[in-house]
Specification:
Layout lengths: L1 H15 L5 E2 L16 H9 L2 H5 L8 H12 L7 E7 L1 H13 L5 E5 L5 H8 L3 E5 L10 H14 L2 E6 L13 H15 L5 E6 L27 E8 H4 L8 E7 L2 H18 L5 H11 L2 H32 L11 E5 L3 H9 L3 E2 L1 E3 L2 E5 L5 H4 L8 E5 L6 E5 L19
Parallel strand pairs: 1-10, 3-4, 3-5, 5-6, 6-7
Antiparallel strand pairs: 2-8, 7-8, 9-12, 11-12, 13-14
The protein binds pyridoxal-5'-phosphate.
């Protein structure tokens, strides 16, 4: 869905001009002129790489300095207590794959949130596992600890190993962020679930959007909750350079294991290296070397932080424009705190997205809503996106009664359509 809608939007923008198309499908940061952002400090280090640096085979586990840098960049000042080990992966997706593949049995259910990135389904199903969901947000707009506990306890009672993929900060597709207290409560629930049992829980915090989830130190505080856990709880952080270093296509990340047990830590490196050899073999050398060059120089880290802060704030400003207008109009969206996406919950999202495309507006239809990429729509285009009733979609459904209003951008040769009830389309 995402790539198909994006391809259409790009082709149309080539034909009509960028200003005539709103492409809110892309999960990459675009600047205010619609160009892909690649951080300057990253570009500079890439240009300096020697042929040997970018062409040599990297070690299967990854360059040692790279792995240390991933751990530092990920945790910052909030390094959890315990044995911490890392293995390189092609992006966050590689982490999800290895976690599911190596820490569960065929046929096991993997616990994920109801609102989740579509690739979770593919990774789980492709490995012949099943999906179990819990609701991420309760009716009060907070982390749904009750449902988390219910589903977790049920799975622990049935399976030897329970894996939880938890994209709990700057969640894709909602932008929801768990607080430190909510992470702590989730960890406490896991502790309670496995206490005095021979069962294991593998918690995989997916922090793909970490660097755009809040102030640098503040947004990392929750990592401390993963320290000093019993041996039968393994935390595997899914870390990626895709967003934080704007290196999406370079396919680079790391799985970072945190455990109180030295044996579990050793096994983590052994089995995941083995699976890497059997799956993709070595990872890309170039982004590892570029990251090493940046992270070994405090001045470059400072530049990196400044650039990230700039784009974090730009995305927040775009989201604020949307939310202000939506609030004024009573348009409901899933509680957004930070990250690349906002979700407008509704039934019949595909039909609505098809209709929006007639007005050169491209968004991603999900099962229970529409995903709007605030990372890729400029402030100018965001302004007025929902401030008038040129297009009105009404939905009175379940937990999220919604009126969705979108106005085509000024100057666009857009056809104005009215749609009262999407079920009739
Ligand atoms: N997790 C989530 C929720 C994502 O949205 C993404 C990227 O879109 C990733 C992980 C990691 O992607 P990649 O494999 O490109 O690093």
């Amino acid at each position: 869905n995402i790539f198909a809608a994006n391809n259409k939007a790009v082709a149309l923008a080539d034909r009509l001009g960028n200003d005539k198309v709103i492409n809110a499908t892309v999960g990459s940061i675009l600047d205010e002129d619609g160009n892909l952002v690649v951080l300057d400090v990253v570009q500079e280090e890439y240009k300096k790489l020697t042929p040997r640096q970018y062409s040599s085979y990297a070690p299967i586990q990854g360059y040692a300095e790279y792995l240390d840098d991933c751990i530092d960049q990920c945790f910052g000042e909030s390094r959890p207590a315990g044995y911490i080990r890392a293995c390189s992966t092609p992006g966050g997706t590689g982490v999800l794959h290895h976690a599911v593949h190596n820490y569960s049995e065929i046929g096991d259910e993997i616990l994920i949130t109801d609102w989740h990135w579509g690739a979770y389904d593919s990774v789980i199903k492709d490995n012949n596992r099943k999906i179990r969901t819990f609701s991420i947000i309760n009716k009060e707009g907070h982390f749904d600890l009750d449902d988390f506990r219910i589903q977790l306890n049920d799975l622990v009672s049935k399976q030897k190993n329970t894996i939880i993929l938890l994209n709990g900060i700057a969640n894709n597709p909602t932008g929801y962020c768990m607080t430190v207290a909510e992470w702590q409560a989730a960890v406490d629930a896991i502790r309670a679930a496995v206490e005095n049992t021979d069962k294991n829980v593998i918690l995989v915090p997916d922090v793909a959007y970490l660097d755009y989830s809040g102030e640098k130190k503040e947004c990392r505080k929750f990592f401390k909750a993963f320290g000093n856990l019993p041996k039968n709880i393994l935390v595997i952080v899914a870390y990626t350079l895709s967003k934080g270093f704007t290196l999406y296509g370079q396919r680079m990340g790391a799985m970072i294991g945190i455990t109180s047990d030295e044996g579990v830590a050793k096994e983590f490196v052994d089995i995941n290296q083995y699976s890497s050899r059997a799956t993709w073999s070595n990872c890309n050398s170039a982004p590892q070397q570029a990251m090493i060059a940046i992270c070994r120089d405090p001045a470059k880290i400072e530049k990196l932080d400044e650039e990230r802060k700039f784009y974090f704030e730009m995305i927040q400003q775009r989201a604020n424009i949307f939310m202000k207008e939506a609030d004024e109009l009573g348009i409901k969206y899933v509680p957004y705190i930070s990250g690349f996406f906002i979700t407008i919950p509704m039934e019949g999202a595909q039909a609505v997205c098809d209709k929006l495309q007639e007005d050169n507006i491209f968004m991603v239809p999900l099962k229970k809503g529409i995903r709007l990429a605030v990372c890729s729509v400029s402030k100018k285009k965001m302004q007025g996106l929902c401030d008038e009733h040129d297009l009105v979609y009404r939905f009175e459904k379940d937990r999220y009664p919604i009126i969705f209003t979108i106005k085509p951008v000024q100057g666009m040769d857009a056809q104005i359509s009215m749609l009262e009830n999407v079920e009739e389309v």
